[in-house]
Amino acid sequence: MSNQIELRHLRYFKAVAEELHFRKAAEKLFISQPGLSRQIKQLEENLGATILERDKKEVRLTPAGEYLKTEIDLMLNHLNFSFQQVKHVAEGASGEIRIGFLGSAMQNVVPDLLLKMNEKFPNIKSSLEEMSNYDQVQAILKDEMDLGFVRLARVPENIGLKAVFTDSFSVVLPGDHPLDTANFTSIAQLAEEKFILFTADYSNLYFNTIMSICEDQGFSPTVSHKTVHAQTIFKLVENNMGVSIVPTSLQEGYNLNIKFIELKDIPQKAILSMIWKKDNRNPVLKSVMGLV
Question: Where is the signal peptide (predicted)?
Answer without folding.
Answer: none
